[in-house]
Amino acid sequence: GQNIDQPTEMTATEGAIVQINCTYQTSGFNGLFWYQQHAGEAPTFLSYNVLDGLEEKGRFSSFLSRSKGYSYLLLKELQMKDSASYLCAVLSSDYKLSFGAGTTVTVRA
Amino acid sequence: GAVVSQHPSWVICKSGTSVKIECRSLDFQATTMFWYRQFPKQSLMLMATSNEGSKATYEQGVEKDKFLINHASLTLSTLTVTSAHPEDSSFYICSARDLGQGDYNEQFFGPGTRLTVL
After folding, report:
1. SS3 content of chain B, % helix, strand, coil (to 5)
2. Could you tell me what percent of chain B has a pLDDT over 90?
């Protein structure tokens, strides 16, 4: 099974940087996803890491260390619209996604 | 990009009735679709994996006789909540894998269906 941990809440100021950490324990690993979810909506894809290292995509970057069971999502130049829940999800060897509980990010002016 | 739709987007029903939710992949074929449930302020929990032309695989603790899944074609999977009760009220989300993007292993999510059982 999977055990995925991420902080419950984070608050940051508009224009700042926030890093959301995710640790996981898995019996099989096929990659790690980060999703953004606004209240009442489905998750939207942000990033995918399957190899160690940093993946950069605009204002969002994601890092993975498989040996440490650790990932982070970095949000730069925060905007008010970035206020949302951010979900860390691990893809197992049977292609099932297991989600963390989500981190609610609040961006303040 | 790959688009997944769900219908209805929200539904209110009386306790004891059955509700059917449709999940469609609009511009790709999906041999595998997934059904998730999300309670307020909680994360998505996988309920079952739906495979085209075969029986669904249910996660532990999910009653297969209560949550009927049919995956009759490569673009459509349905979830029927039978004899719904207030505790079944939740946000139901489906996702689908696009076999044409195998390198990414990405699942594309539908917009979700909000079920409220009175």
Report:
1. 5, 50, 45
2. 70
